[in-house]
Predict the 3D structure of the following.
Amino acid sequence: MPAGAPPLLTLSGIAKYFPGVVANKDVSIDFYPGEIHALLGENGAGKSTLMNIVTGLYQPDEGELILDGYGVRFESPEAAIAAGIGMVHQHFKLVSRFTVAENLALGWRETGFRLSASAMARRAEVEAERYGLDIRPSARIDTLTSGEQQRVEILRVLSRGARLLILDEPTAVLSPLEVGELYAALRRFRNGGGAVILISHKLDEIMALADRVTVLRHGRVSGTHLVAHTKPSTLVTEMIGRPVEQKSDYPRKMPRTDDDAVMVLENVSCRDGAGQIRLHPLSLEIRAGEILGIAGVTGNGQSELSDLLAGLRSSETGHIRVDGKDMRGRGPNAFREAGIGYVPEDRLHKALAPALGVTENAVMRLFRTSPIGGRLAYHASEALRFTRSLLDQAQVSLAEPATPIRALSGGNQQRLVLARERMISHRALVASYPSRGLDIGAIAMMRQTLADIRDEGRAVVLVSEDLDELMALSDRIAVLCGGRLMTVVPRGDYDRARIGALMSGRDGGASS
Ligand SMILES: Nc1ncnc2c1ncn2[C@@H]1O[C@H](COP(=O)(O)OP(=O)(O)OP(=O)(O)O)[C@@H](O)[C@H]1O
């Protein structure tokens, strides 16, 4: 950033309160043009709330926003966009049946005055060139990878004239190659004088990309640092109040005794709504007392496979057996009764009912079973007792369990789903990208939980794109590419380069 340049945006003494919660208090931060400023903090530390204030979704209860030296008040997100502040959310807000150019055009002022398809595509190309973001204007959004969709989102924000670009965990859904492209695009924007706020739980990412970092703790700023002058361990301690050990191995507490297959898949396959094959026939055994890792670049059949394993989707061919029982055509309830818990990739929409309270969501999978319920009864006091114990286990502090679950921070929603599904998984837990959205302390806790489940003789299926995570935890790693099971690698044979090559469709091998 140029020496002596004034801040683009200053937050001065910002506070935001919700019933029983101090989400932000005394928050003062300067964001400069020409800097990438990371925002780091535990789940529930107040990062999203603060950004919702900056983007006009919430009004602060105290404090001031100062833009270009003048106090401002954004009555709506449109007002913030008009002032040059744009945000790219974790869940993209694109119209999936529209093309890239049409989605971009939705944000342009002149669109209302009839813009032809070719003019839209031309302008999309000009904007893409200007910001160095590679897009295909005529492609439909639902045919794009997550990385391509994210580029469209970023371009949509930038082409509306954003000078301050806010990104919420932008690399969570990207392949390693796409991460590199995103970093390059953000650096280009920064070098051209743009300001970036990066919400991230990944310390490596912050160290590699950010110029400065602000740590939030319990809604307050606990420090702002130049990244070049700070260490990751200092940031962790400032964020959580203690150091967190990053384990690269989770040795068994006792030797494995049970080698029974909990789940057996025989030639299962599935297609998407458009009839495209998403999972080619595959066979796989999931054994008691093991963690089976599923590696692959996002979108290569993992979500179809995990939905199949939890009864959310049925297989077109073959069989799924749980403890020898044929589950073909059975739904999620039958899988739950068979002892299969599931943490899906999209927790908010697949594992939770966003508008319902925390209690309803906590008991959602168990409200028909004793002591919470029976065929006709529902015991509210038992439901509340269960919810409180789940909150305790998940280490989520919440004064009022009637709060709608969508008001919880993303990480706290994830912690609750994990605790609930752990209770259900008497035989196996299927966990899809369980570290997404969790802070570093919660990730360590989650990984230990998976190892404990394994040590209790249950099975874990861990879907992840993080090879370090998979190699630290898994007994075997199955690699998916293009909806095909490439191979299953046993723990002794892990080789990062080979697994990486298999993930991108190179090399072959047998399936087991
Ligand atoms: N609309 C709301 N109503 C009630 N409480 C809310 C609301 N929005 C946020 N909160 C609470 O404010 C606190 C801060 O949440 P916020 O989402 O800002 O955290 P975060 O730092 O973004 O967490 P994460 O890393 O998990 O996304 C949490 O306790 C959350 O439950």
In short: The mean pLDDT is 89. The first helix runs from residue 47 to 54. Residues 18, 21, 23, 41, 43-49, 403, 407-412, 439 surround adenosine-5'-triphosphate (CB under 6 Å). The chain has two domains: 9-240, 261-503.
